[in-house]
User: Which sequence fits this backbone?
């Protein structure tokens, strides 16, 4: 609000403990183990409620914060946070901003600065290094010189973080509308080489394949054509790994399978050819690429369900480009659960022709939804294709009881 931006959500800080909040709101759910907080749901809205905490003492010989459930005062809660601009409180009773850490001064100077010694704070939670870069890229701020020096010195500590937390931060970066600048800064600071070596090598080669894909996603997001919720994990995941030419099965951490299972695995989708077919001028299809050796696996634990859905989205692109098709095929394609995501992919990466095709399919989807429905529950506008006539089998009659025998004449 102080920067004149629209907040994406509101988080509540309170002296009430999680169980006390749960007693007040029956629509409250206590989540997290390392950091227990409350999610109070109102329809589709989720209000995050956290109890004021103080910095928990680290275990001997281990600077990482394993648990953070030591409750404290509002001032202690401010000093345990990561950056000064992230430690401002707004008191809804007095309509005032409470600043314990000189965050307003750094906000005026557009600076990202850690609270306390940056070396200590980054060792406590290495994800803070990733958050510093993402915050600076999204707001157009600069990172404080001491914090930046500590970040570059400790960049290798990022591998100690939970892969699930790193993946969640990557998804946030891709949805915030400044993913290209974020990845450029991650490359400049050396963090990207530890997180996603393929992306780091792509940016080092001055290739616009990855950065162009991220720019299209940012333009789509900043144009207001989608909310962060509309950009699903599959869409943002594809925007990141498809330009790198990584087969989808390599983007998942799966257990090692037998040779028989490997032979039964279907051929991976040619993602580079898909990007070229979508009209990306930076992509040149090279069928010999990767034949000498496959790229190393991605270190981030992408979920199998997201990769499978991305595979369906990419496979649907060729069918969406076939405008002249039968009504039944159109109806079946529109009814797929991934239809809307496939259209968004076409709008993001398909250029002008992709946006026109997506608008055409959206019109067809609206007409399909408003078409009259027969008593049998089928669309009346879609004629039923007669199939081969089945010969009715005659039912075999069961033999009846034997007739009663006549008495012999006396």
Assistant:
């Amino acid at each position: 609000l102080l920067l004149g931006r629209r907040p994406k959500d509101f988080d509540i800080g309170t002296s009430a403990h999680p169980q006390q909040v749960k007693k007040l709101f029956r629509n409250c759910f206590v989540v997290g183990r390392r950091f227990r907080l409350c999610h109070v749901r109102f329809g589709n809205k989720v209000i995050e409620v956290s109890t004021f905490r103080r910095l928990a003492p680290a275990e001997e010989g281990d600077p990482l914060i394993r648990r953070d459930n030591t409750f404290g005062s509002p001032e202690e809660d401010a000093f345990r946070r990561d950056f000064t601009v992230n430690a401002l409180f707004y008191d809804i009773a007095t309509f005032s901003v409470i600043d314990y850490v000189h965050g307003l001064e750094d906000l005026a100077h557009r600076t990202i600065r850690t609270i306390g010694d940056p070396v200590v704070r980054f060792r406590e939670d290495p994800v803070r290094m990733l958050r510093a870069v993402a915050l600076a890229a999204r707001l157009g701020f600069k990172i404080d010189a001491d914090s930046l020096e500590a970040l570059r010195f400790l960049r290798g500590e990022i591998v100690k973080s939970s892969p699930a937390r790193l993946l969640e931060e990557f998804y946030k970066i891709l949805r915030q509308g400044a993913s290209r600048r974020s990845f450029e800064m991650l490359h400049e600071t050396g963090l990207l080489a530890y997180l996603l070596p393929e992306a780091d090598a792509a940016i080092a080669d001055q290739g616009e394949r990855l950065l162009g894909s991220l720019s299209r996603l940012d333009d789509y997001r900043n144009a207001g054509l989608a909310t962060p919720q509309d950009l699903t994990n599959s869409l943002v995941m594809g925007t990141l790994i498809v330009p790198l030419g990584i087969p989808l099965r390599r983007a998942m951490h799966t257990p090692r399978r037998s040779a028989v299972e490997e032979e039964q695995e279907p051929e991976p989708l040619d993602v580079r050819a898909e990007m070229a077919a979508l009209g990306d001028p930076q992509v040149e299809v090279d069928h010999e690429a990767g034949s000498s050796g496959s790229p190393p696996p991605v270190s981030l634990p992408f979920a199998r369900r997201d990769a499978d859905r991305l595979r369906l989205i990419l496979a649907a692109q060729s069918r969406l480009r076939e405008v002249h098709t039968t009504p039944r095929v159109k109806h079946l394609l529109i009814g797929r659960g991934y239809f809307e995501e496939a259209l968004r992919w076409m709008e993001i990466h398909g250029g002008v022709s992709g946006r026109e095709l997506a608008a055409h399919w959206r019109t067809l989807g609206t007409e399909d939804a408003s078409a009259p429905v027969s008593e049998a529950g089928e669309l009346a506008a879609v004629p039923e294709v007669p199939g081969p006539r089945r010969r009715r089998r005659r039912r075999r009659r069961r033999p009846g009881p034997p007739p009663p025998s006549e008495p012999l004449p006396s």
